[in-house]
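Re: the pair you flagged

First of the two:
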Amino acid sequence: MSNFSPTAGNAVRGTFFPRVSVVVPIYNGEADLPDLVSCLLAQSYPGDRVEYLLVDNGSRDRTSTLLQMAVRAGTEQGLTLRSFTEAEIQSSYAARNVGIRAAQGEILAFTDADCRPISNWLEQLVQPFTDAAVGLVAGEVKALPGNTLLERFADRQETLSQKHTLAHSFLPYGQTANLAVRRHILEQSGLFRPYLTTGGDADLCWRIQQQGNWQLHFAEEAIVQHRHRTTLPELRRQWQRYGTSNRYLHELHGVDLMRTLSLSAYAHRWMRWLLKELPGAGLKMFSRKADLSVMLETPINLLCIQARASGQRQAGLPAAAREIAWLDQRPSEPETDRPNG
């Protein structure tokens, strides 16, 4: 039985303001930090009820300098921005764990350096926690405006939307680009697996739901915007990572591996595109009822399918990635002495 509960409707002005800690992992984020910090400073959430914990994951650019500037900007505005470093483990999940351990809020909210939360994002994200049965809240992830062919393709596919992850056949989960959790729950479930490099958001959400029967609520009006990939190599790496994630989750939770296309099915899709879809899309382009991204939708989809299959086939879960970090112990310590929840 699913623990997922949908949003109740349109956004309303919040009246519930628990103490919140927003955790953001950052790696080589100099291009994204100024816009991210501007979005955080513009949040409608009461400034005395929120802290922003920015964790540098061993960046090699100007991230450290920009974080110092962000802390000063927050202080000048009467807001709490705190900067931390996780330089030992190169993993966004290890960086998030540093923020979690330093957090003082009863609610932990997560987003990423390349995300742009809208002004009432946090306010909308925490409202579902008025229901004591809700342990997790996922907000929506929408695309930043883009004009490239691949951005238009991904926008039509709603690639980034949480609606896909919330409909997962195993259990619903929310991406850490836009997710919140009650802090005390992590005392039983554990934190993120620090050596995991992908799939950690699903892993955490599933452990929480399995161990405590907590509900995961979708707050559709709690929106962060995110960039789509703009080049084929970036798109391929994204979908390879999806495949890698599925392999890891298969080994950790026994989820089904994604089906791969046979050579004959792959060839059939190409022939159907060449003989049927391409002429139709060409006519629509000629009459200006479609653009090039529509014409190339099938080839791009096949590229994504192939990349995901490649990632799933080549991946193998490292032994260290099975470890779960805990609030009261270092991430490298084994989980065997912990209660099963």
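Second of the two:
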Amino acid sequence: MSVDETAAVREPDPFRRTRWSPRVRWRLLPWWARVVLVYLAARAVTTAFVLELAGRQGPNAWTGAYPGYFEFANLWDARWYAFIASSGYPDELPRTDDGHVAENQWAFLPVYPGVVRVLTAVGVPWDVASVLIALIAGLGAALVFHRLMSRFLDPDQAMFAVVLFCVAPVAPIMQFGYAESLGFLWLAVALLLLVDRRYGWLVPVVVIWAFTRPGALAFALTLGLHWIVRWVSREREPFPVRERVAAASVAVVAGVAGLAWPAIAWAVTGEMGAYTETELAWRSSYIGYVELVPLTPWFQGGDWWLGQPMGTIAPIALVVAFGLVLVSPWVRRLGIDLRLWLASYALYLFAVFFPQSSTFRILAPMFPLAGALAVPRSPWWRGGLVAVSLALQFGWLVIAWRIDGYDWTPP
């Protein structure tokens, strides 16, 4: 055999090497198919984590020992949503023995249990229907998030941002009986519409979102800041009167929608502070029953968790650190509108949220930050991020989701 013939035998088929190699076949897939595969793979890994923990779960207030997947996926607040679907909201607030408002359904918004109830009406068990809706909404959020990231990042960066979204430490919530997935979907759609300046379509999205998960008030602030930025920069980017009116109108709608649920709770119960006092009931086990004073909860939490002086220093340090994050080069790649959302939502949480074991789940609407982490292309960086995220995900499930005796760490 000649040298040329030997080389021809040893030389791999260039057609197979280029067209049929896994990397090329992956790139030949349409973007939506890649997102679906990433999402399903991430959910499969999470399912393995969940089944491992369910197999070690002891008897508790909601399940017997070793519950199946769907039972285990409907612990904690998922039970409140099931209660809302079956019994609605109380017209009289429940009270503790000392007369304070007790935990009740008014803390939870109605869209998610309403959607799940539609499935149960055709015979799907609640535990299954709640997970199916969460899974479908989570996939929708991943698809829209990819489109959003594609406005600012290169294709491989946008796809890796989706990977980080799907394997995030609190990503298991997208396959549990919680409303977060629907909230992520509406938020991703709202941000995409804002970035694309499609203000009219924002109205129905923001209204539905306001009755799914809290955040509409923060988005109203985002829209207000967006209006100011566009006005100041109108010489560089035209801001015609029609868009000025539309953007301002949507900001007003978002503000009204964000206040609508507390107003409805007031109208039904006859108590003006029905919603606020209900929310405060959840922090009473930490600091007792106190009035809500905006911008103080993180200092109250700092004092409870860390004592003084660290209880005062830590919140201030967090604010400074987050401000530096917002002006970092990677985050600046996301554009001004997404940074306005991140700042607005952070301010909203700083104003009203008490830091406790649910903090990581409550921070999840900051998922656009995944786009900043996707900017570096180093395989070591990306592989490390995925590994760390999955490790933190398992840790979150162990600490916050699994019930271990007297558990005071709800997710």
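Residues 241-269 form the longest helix (29 residues).

-B.
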